Please model this.
Amino acid sequence: MALQTDQPIRVGLLGAGTVGSQTARLIVDQSEELALRIGRPLELTGVACLDPAEVTVPWIDKALLTTDTMAVATSNDIVIELIGGTGAAYTFVKAALEKGASVVTANKALLAKYGPELYELAEKNNADIYFEAAVGGAIPILRPLRESLAGDQVEHMLGIVNGTTNYILDEMTTKGLDFDVALRQAQEKGYAEADPTGDIEGYDAANKAAILATLGFHTKVGIDDVTVEGITHIDAADIAAAKAEHKVIKLLAVVGRTEEGVSARVYPALISDEHPLASVRGSFNAIFLHAKYADDLMFYGRGAGGAPTASAVVGDVVTEARHIAQGTRGPAIRMYNDFPIAPLDAAKAAFAVRFVILDSPGVLAKVASVFAAHGVSINGVNQDLKPTQVAPGYDGERQQLRIVTHLTDETTLRATIDDVLKLDCVIGEPSIVRVLD
Amino acid sequence: MALQTDQPIRVGLLGAGTVGSQTARLIVDQSEELALRIGRPLELTGVACLDPAEVTVPWIDKALLTTDTMAVATSNDIVIELIGGTGAAYTFVKAALEKGASVVTANKALLAKYGPELYELAEKNNADIYFEAAVGGAIPILRPLRESLAGDQVEHMLGIVNGTTNYILDEMTTKGLDFDVALRQAQEKGYAEADPTGDIEGYDAANKAAILATLGFHTKVGIDDVTVEGITHIDAADIAAAKAEHKVIKLLAVVGRTEEGVSARVYPALISDEHPLASVRGSFNAIFLHAKYADDLMFYGRGAGGAPTASAVVGDVVTEARHIAQGTRGPAIRMYNDFPIAPLDAAKAAFAVRFVILDSPGVLAKVASVFAAHGVSINGVNQDLKPTQVAPGYDGERQQLRIVTHLTDETTLRATIDDVLKLDCVIGEPSIVRVLD
Model:
């Protein structure tokens, strides 16, 4: 790989959408300065896209556009994959690595599904794979995990890694909006897609949890190892109750390591409004982590958007180009641990559960006795929640009942809730939010 | 530098104080896991200290202790400098680099004074110099600047980079304490030294500002280029006035780049209580930065302490050991720009100035006319500040007058204040705090 000093480092770009075209812009517009940073120039040799006629940004030379993605993937020193998804992207990333090219990608779904296989393929072919943009957009989190914390032990991470849901929850919190209203506004402002399922059900965050767990704990964690709960059952009553307790609700990707294994989960959680994550507003992202020696760390920034994501992508390209200029490569992603996935009940938690109930005498006693029968201890009860528009089936005769438990395991909690829902006086879907210390 | 695969990478440690002994602990206690992360074992070959009899921690083998610092500095692959200061540390770091050893240091004063010379010496000798722990302790900020943001343009950074002053200001804010009381408490709790000058006058933060500016703008900025104001004139009245405006006062290291050059400054500033830096409490540190494409980023964590600082040091050691294992080196610190230091008045600012005045008729008119004479426009006035114990010379007949200006340049403001202080009705030292947007 060691080339002559002034010979350009060849870069191929797969995908010319929002992030792809911004990435090309950073490479082309900053070519002189990037050459100074690297010690050799970068040359963008090809941009693969579905329809060259649709790519009209002035900084991409028309002559570079091609529909022959495989040719771009297999004829460069560095291949930037911004196609997305786990189909074609997988084929082309594999082809690039097998050719000994290094890959830079922002594709969280690809890495959550095929990451360990691709990391090993890269090492086998003496190539690198970088993907800082895949988690937290512009936020440098993966490089700190691979390098800065290389002398420490990460114990757990809590990430706000989906800007759409953070925006929705933040609007609900600051403006008292109901979920449906906040979602609609997010869609109107372009923060949420027309089909918001991947965001609001937590699947996007789940991909990032798998990546964080793999890098943080040096063990294989895939998307199928992540348990996921979204925010669709959270309503204004939950937010109001949180506020009264000086807390906020955030959708978190939570990864941890205990003696029973590693866990990777996505769920809505109540955190103190004094926690650093509580101040992460709007569509911003942040990853809070605790390491054995470094103690608490937090990384905050833009989790999405063309320019911020492109900044992270080009940071990776420059880092890898420096390695190539020196005839070497970056640190391998070593998954030297083989930790099991911790059982769901390994860690006990406290929960805030809100039921919609028929307002009749004895409801609380009936619900409380179900909790008692399952041995789930109750820490607090709130029956006078302000009614909200979206409480399913809510009308003047119905109420909401919120119960905060002491520590319990999840299986027991789920069984308790199932039995509570069998009561005639309890209707609709409950909301379930974890309470973090 | 390429050695056989199983041959240990030799590490020498200079200094066995709090950080030094914690660093040794992380290397010794985690030796097996670090070898997996690097691909080769680390061997701690020597620990130089002033008095081996004083080093009693069980994880440092007595046989490694020596007073021959030069021998340790010149006989290893990686030399960790934790002596501190700019005297002996400079001699030994230079000797190590000249021998082709890579250096890891936490010494902000050394880098603020001799950084550019040492970066060039490292490159000349095909060695690396890493110093993540020198700014923000355990917080990964220098590596993101060198690598993650290598495809972007940093525009400015605001850093809370001194835990002692942040602790003092935070105690003043949350408990309404006066400066002297908060300082005394910080000393009792070990957050401030017996001689707190270096912290409270801003000199410690100034070293970090010089390092941040050099790495952020790829240009030489030394400690003598940094202008410094401390927090000794801030009192409870300033904090109370800030609170009333939903702001907090923080001591910031501020580095920026404009067409007129780069600036590196340390000063107390008013920031909105919704700014991410406002939630940085107690002795925590954080660096907030704005880059052209990545937009806003913030990095938060422990800025000091034995274990957190050692975590950053060993992260650097592992990173460099991987390079050595691959027979290569890390990215050079390229200072390819030669920006001038921007003149003091290049950027206009708004200021909050608090005077101690004799409570007599016409004082406000007299002070206001001095401001008018200098063309400094007044944005707000507050004459009924709650008196505090430490207002210099305060007694029943004296008051405090706080004036917030519109944008002005610093030379004009200083001249205005000098003239105000000539008035008979104005006494003592004023406090001057910048107002940030």
Notes: Residues 39 and 110 of chain A are 32 Å apart (CA to CA).
